Amino acid sequence: MAEINSYKVVLAFLMPYKNGWNLALDQINAASGINGNKLKVVSRDDNGNPGDTVRVAQELVTRE
Predict the structure, then answer these.
(1) Cα–Cα nearest to 29, from 38, 42, 20, 21
(2) CB-based contacts of 22, cutoff 8 Å, min separation 6
(3) Residues with Cβ < 8 Å from 62, sequence gap 6 or more?
(4) Tens digit of each residue's pLDDT (9 = 90 or more) over 24-62
């Protein structure tokens, strides 16, 4: 799974969000993941820039 967000721009609002999905991820993986496979999230910061978002998304698709 991949996640792109603007952590450097709106850190105060996005850290609770990130902590929430990390907690869910930990709970899912503690229960043997999905179909026995542990989940991993690759997270990237887009710096609040739409151009960076597109570039980072393309990188995630091709490299991750």
Answers:
(1) 38
(2) 41
(3) none
(4) 999 999 999 999 999 999 989 999 999 999 999 999 999
What letter represents residue 62's amino acid?
Answer: T
Q: Are 41 and 21 in contact (CB under 8 A)?
A: yes
Rounded Cα distance, 51 and 13, in Å: 22
Residue 39, token pair as written in the block: 């989940």
Burial of 11 (0-12, 13-18, 19+ CB in 10 A): exposed
DSSP 1-64: -EEEE-TTTSHHHHHHHHHHHHHHHHHHHHTT-BTTB----EEEE-TT-HHHHHHHHHHHHHH-
